[in-house]
Write a structure and sequence with these properties.
seven-stranded mixed sheet; two-stranded antiparallel ribbon; 11 helices; about 40% helix; elongated
Length: about 270
C-alpha cells in the first residue's frame, strides 16, 4: 500500500472522500442487491469499502479507478476484481460501457466530476440498466426535481429524459473521511425508454443550454436566437425555462430540427 494511503490521507486533486460508515455501507449494498452475473461496474471504488460488500454477491464485478496507489491496494485486496485503471471522463469509460447494454453502475462520485459524468451516462443510457450514485445532496435534488421548482435545471431535463430518479438515503458528512462540507445523497437512476423520439440530440442540448443560461427570462426571449414559430408548437413562450418539462423541450427541439430540414439555410 502506498505511503499516503497508509497515512489515510485522500488526495484532494481527485476529490476523494471515502465513505467509512459501516451501517451506511451495508444499507447501500442492500439497496443495490447485486446478483451473480450482474454487469456491475463500480466507479471510483477508493479503498474498497463498498467493493467488499458488492463482490461478495457479484464476484464478476468490474471497477474503474483513477488513483494508481489505490489501484495497487485494490488489486492486492481483491485479486478477483476486474479493475480498469483510468479516468471515467475519458474515452476509455465510453468504450467500456458500449461493450454491453445492461450495466449496473455504482459510485461515490467526487463532487467535481458528478455533473460531467452524469452527462456521459445520459449519452450512453441505452447501455445502462440502472445506476446508484452517491452525490452532493444539492445535485441529487436537481435530479429528482419537478418543473416549476427552484431545483429544476438543465441537468434535471437531461437525466429525466433517459432515467427515472429517486433519492433513497441521505448520508451525513461525518460518515466520510475526510468529512465534506456538505451532506450527500444516494440516488437511484433507472433507465427508461424514450417516450418520444428526438430528431437531433445536439439541437435538444443547444435548446437546454440556451434556455437555462437565461432561466429568469421567458422562453421567447431566452431562445430568441432560434427564431421559433411558437404558433406551431403547444408550448407557452411566456413561461420561464424552469416552468416546462421534458416533453415540452423535446417539442421545441423537434420543431427547430424539422424547420432546419425543410429550410437548411434558415438556422445556419
Amino acid at each position: 500500500m502506498a505511503s499516503n494511503l497508509s497515512r489515510g490521507k485522500p488526495r484532494k486533486r481527485f476529490g476523494q472522500h471515502f465513505l467509512r460508515d459501516p451501517f451506511a455501507l451495508e444499507e447501500i449494498a442492500e439497496f443495490i442487491a447485486a446478483q451473480p452475473g450482474d454487469a456491475l461496474l463500480e466507479i471510483g471504488p477508493g479503498q474498497g469499502a463498498l467493493t467488499e460488500h458488492l463482490i461478495a454477491t457479484c464476484p464478476t464485478m468490474r471497477a474503474m479507478e483513477i488513483d494508481r496507489d489505490l489501484c495497487r491496494h485494490l488489486r492486492a485486496r481483491f485479486p478477483q476484481l476486474d479493475l480498469v485503471e483510468g479516468d471515467v471522463l475519458t474515452h476509455t469509460f465510453e468504450q467500456l460501457l458500449m461493450a454491453r447494454a445492461d450495466w449496473r453502475l455504482v459510485g461515490n462520485l467526487p463532487y467535481n466530476i458528478s455533473t460531467p459524468l452524469l452527462a456521459r451516462v445520459c449519452a450512453l443510457a441505452s447501455h445502462v440498466r440502472d445506476a446508484w450514485f452517491m452525490l452532493q445532496t444539492e445535485v441529487a435534488d436537481r435530479l429528482v426535481a419537478e418543473p416549476g421548482t427552484r431545483d429544476w435545471s438543465r441537468l434535471s431535463v437531461m437525466v429525466r429524459l433517459r432515467f427515472r430518479a429517486e433519492i433513497r438515503m441521505t448520508v451525513d458528512a461525518s460518515s466520510f473521511h475526510p468529512p465534506p462540507k456538505v451532506t450527500s445523497s444516494l440516488v437511484h437512476l433507472v433507465s427508461k425508454p424514450r417516450d418520444r423520439s428526438i430528431i437531433s440530440l445536439p439541437t435538444f442540448e443547444d435548446i437546454l443550454k440556451g434556455a437555462f443560461s437565461q432561466r429568469r427570462k421567458t422562453l421567447a426571449n431566452a431562445l430568441r436566437q432560434f427564431s421559433i414559430d411558437w404558433r406551431q408548437t403547444t408550448v407557452n413562450p411566456h413561461k420561464r425555462p424552469d416552468q416546462i418539462g421534458v416533453d415540452a423541450y423535446i417539442e421545441i427541439a423537434n420543431h427547430i430540427a424539422s424547420q432546419s430540414i425543410k429550410h437548411p439555410s434558415k438556422h445556419l
